[in-house]
Specification:
Layout lengths: L2 H4 L1 H20 L2 H4 L19 H23 L5 E2 L5 E2 L1 H22 L5 H17 L1
Antiparallel strand pairs: 1-2
Helix pairs in contact: 2-4, 5-6
Amino acid sequence: MNRIARNPEISAALVALGLALGAAYGTGLLGAVFGGVDLTLPIAPGHWMAWTRAGATFFGVIACLLVAMTLWQAFRPQVPRTGILGIETTPGDRLFISLLGSAFINLGWLGLMGPPLWFALALSLVYAAAVFRWV
């Protein structure tokens, strides 16, 4: 049994840290922590990446999901199960499959319909629920 599973204080601290970082990143408060750096500006002039609040929230939520899945596996190890695809999957595998499929749903929506992505988000949530239920 690993140290995290034996010590719930460490697990609670990791969850709190993940949630706090995700929330701080999404609300723009993390820039204040790093000396007032504005995370919505490009990394370098003319560079392609600028952190928007939506983008930062997206990656913060994924980070929190990964922390939560890690802790779930540490406290309650899951037995792989065979679903509709005919392959054995754990909850972590199903999370990966749902994130990958959701990326394709959103990219397809952008390519065919354009913004906004609210309906694509709803489709992604339905897809993720189906993956966790039947895959």
